[in-house]
Structures are given as structure tokens and as C-alpha cells.
User: Fold this.
Amino acid sequence: MNNQQAQQQIAELKELLNQYGHEYYVLDAPSVPDAEYDRKMQELLKLEEAFPDLVTADSPSRRIGGEPLEAFQKVRHNVPMMSLGNAFNEQDLRDFARRAGQGTDDAISFVCELKIDGLAVSLTYEEGKFVRGATRGDGTTGEDITSNLRTVRSIPLSIQEESTIEVRGEAFMPHKSFLNLNKQRRENDEEPFANPRNAAAGSLRQLDPKIAAKRNLDIFLYGVGEWQAGTLESHSERLKYMQRIGFKTNPEWRRCESIDEVIDYIKYWEEKRPDLDYEIDGIVVKVDNLRQQEELGFTAKNPRWAIAYKFPAEEVLTTLREIELS
Ligand SMILES: NC(=O)c1c(N)nc(OC2CCCC2)nc1O[C@@H]1CCC[C@@H]1O
Assistant:
């Protein structure tokens, strides 16, 4: 086979394997058995070995992780990654909604999202390719962990959006992966991780991406940073757009027309939280309309248009602990 034919074959295999990966890791709806995926991956690995100059950064074969880094580079967030103010009870939520409605006669709608308890990260795409991933850090300066984030199977290495965009989300470790990892660490006399959040943060701050690649990390995207794509009216539209171009968004987000609906949503998930196979520590409530968000702006460190309702202490963790020790 000559270079030209190899290039054609590699391009077809990349396309196919990225599609299979999207179905399995993002949509949770594989269209082929794992054996078919593995067979195609072996074909790609063999071709890339025979034609190394045809390997590209967005090849699905790169998911196993590249060479270890000496250190993490610093990354400056041109759009700061804010933190959230907290609400602990119904009155706090009603106060938040009242403040949000103060400056306008328009009705305020909200979007509620599960507050994923992981590591906040930013992903930048240029001309449809994943080019940089960073931790939140102090909100202005984070660490470049691109090589580790490339190994997170639910992070697309390429998307159907040509303009430069930056999306933000929470990388996390599902409960199953957390329990298995701690079982392995105990068997190897290593210190187990205290909780899935520490396990996710610890995995993504490894200098060797091959370690991160084995940690079965996942991600839900929930916001944007730099955004040169078309303007959208609302946060809910933006979540739908992000999903359409290939990002994994949490399926449980809901648009709520009133704070009463928000409170119902929170009560529902306070109850249903143990059924989730990942850790959440609350519910994030956001004003849906982007113009209203703009008008509300920020305090020194938090947006006035969003708040985190925190669940009471971690009874779920004790359950995890019980499972571990059982
Ligand atoms: N952890 C989450 O699931 C989550 C979310 N679903 N939505 C937001 O929106 C915020 C981000 C800045 C302004 C609104 N933040 C989240 O987590 C934040 C990131 C940094 C501190 C909190 O963990």
C-alpha cells in the first residue's frame, strides 16, 4: 500500500472510530459491539505504525496518552472562570430570584443543572480541533492539562464548529470507576482516594497522560468562555447547541419558569441523588436569558445570575464508603 492509499484508509478509520466513540462515550448508545471497535482500532494502530508521519493529534489512537510532561504550563483564562455563591435553603433561593428580578419588569426564567462534584476545566477548539484544555486554577490562571484531557473519551478531539470556541465543564470520576480504582490501590498498598472529586483532580494532575488514560474519567460541559460562534439568546439554547456539535452535556438540566419550579426540581434531586452513578454536591440555578445575565453581571468573584444550592453533608459518601468496605 502506498502513502496515498494509507492516508485514505487512516482518514476513513479515524472518522469511523470517532463516530463509534461519540456514540459510546457521549451518547451512551453504541451502534457496534466493542469487538468491532477494537478490530478497527487495531487496524488504525497497525497503519499508523507503518506510516508514522500520517498520525494526527485528533486520531482516536491518541486516547491512550502521549509522553509524560516535565511540568504543567500555565494558562491564562481571558474570560475568567468564576466561582458560585451558595444557597442553603428555600429562603436563600427566593432571595436570589428576587434580586435577579429587581432590575427588570421582564419575567425571569431559570435553568437548573446538577452540580457535578469534579474538577472545573476549560476546553478550547480552533477550526474544529481540540487544541487546549486547562484547569480552572484561581479562575484567572490555570494549568495546561491538554494531554491528560485528550484521554477523556467523552471529550471530542474534533467538533463540527469551525470558529474558535471555548467550553467549560466538570471532569469527574463515576462511582464505579472510583470504587474499582480504590480497590486496585488497596491491593497495591497505595493510599485510596478520599472521594471521587479528589480522584478526578489527582488523575488530571498527573504529568504522565498514560495514567489519566486508565482512570475512566468523564465530563459534562455546562458553559462557555471565549465564543466566536453565532450569538444565542439563552443558556438553554447554548446547552442544546453544544450537544449538537458533539459535546456531552448533562441530560438532567431543566428550564424552570419560576423559583417554585426550581424548588420542586431541587426537592426531586435531593431524593434521587443516590440513584446517580456520579457525585453531585448540589444544584446550580442560572438565569436563562443571556441579555438578563449580562445586565446582572458579577460581584467580585461570583455571577449575580447564578447560584449553587448546596445539599446537606455527604450522606452519599458514607454509602460509597459502605460499598467499599462491604
Ligand atoms: N459543577 C457544576 O456542575 C457547575 C455547573 N453545572 N454550572 C456552573 O456554572 C457556573 C460557572 C461560572 C458561572 C456559572 N458551574 C459549575 O461548577 C462551578 C465551576 C467552578 C466552581 C463550581 O464548581
Remarks:
- Residues 82-84, 113, 115-116, 120, 136, 170, 222-223, 284, 303, 306 surround 0OW (CB under 6 Å).
- The CA atoms of residues 121 and 135 lie 5 Å apart.
- The mean pLDDT is 95.
